[in-house]
Design brief:
Elements lengths: L4 E4 L6 E7 L2 E6 L6 E5 L4 E3 L4 E3 L4 E3 H11 L14 H11 L10 H16 L16 H6 L1
Antiparallel strand pairs: 1-2, 1-5, 2-3, 3-4, 6-7
């Protein structure tokens, strides 16, 4: 189910895929309003299942990173205030989750977005991050083109 959680470039927060419209997707925001809106083919829409974080050796799926963060935080919202944290604080916190992350390709804004997404998912009761892993042949662009 969590492979239907989407990030839309240029729009804050996360969205849940509700339905497919004619040449668009119908998404619902994962906030207190649960506002439904279309996401068009021109919008850059990506499933959280398709996102990975850079490490020194390979890319680690976002599901694994979120699971490690959940374990560190005991299933609670992030203890670090990512809005006020410095670059060093963000990287020190992130190093506890993913020790070998690539400090040249992972930016402070990436860590902030990860923590924001984690808090949104936890607040909405979406805690089984193993379901974020991509499934064979599952591609959001293919769904969007239908």
């Amino acid at each position: 189910m969590l492979e239907t959680i989407l990030a839309i470039s240029g729009k804050p927060g996360l969205y849940k895929l509700v339905s497919r419209g004619n040449r668009n997707l119908i998404v619902e925001s994962l906030d207190e309003r649960h506002h439904r809106q279309p996401a068009f083919a021109t919008d850059k829409v990506i499933s959280l299942a398709d996102i990975a974080m850079y490490t020194d050796a390979e890319e680690v799926p976002l599901a694994d990173v979120l699971t490690a963060l959940q374990k560190k935080e005991n299933g609670q919202p992030a203890s670090l205030d990512y809005k006020k944290a410095s670059k060093e604080q963000l990287f020190d916190f992130f190093a506890e989750i993913l020790p070998n992350f690539d400090r040249d390709r992972v930016f402070p804004s990436d860590v902030k977005k990860l923590l924001q997404w984690y808090d949104i998912l936890i607040a909405n009761g979406l805690t089984d991050f193993s379901k974020l892993k991509p499934t064979e042949g599952d591609n959001i662009e293919d769904r969007q083109a239908e």
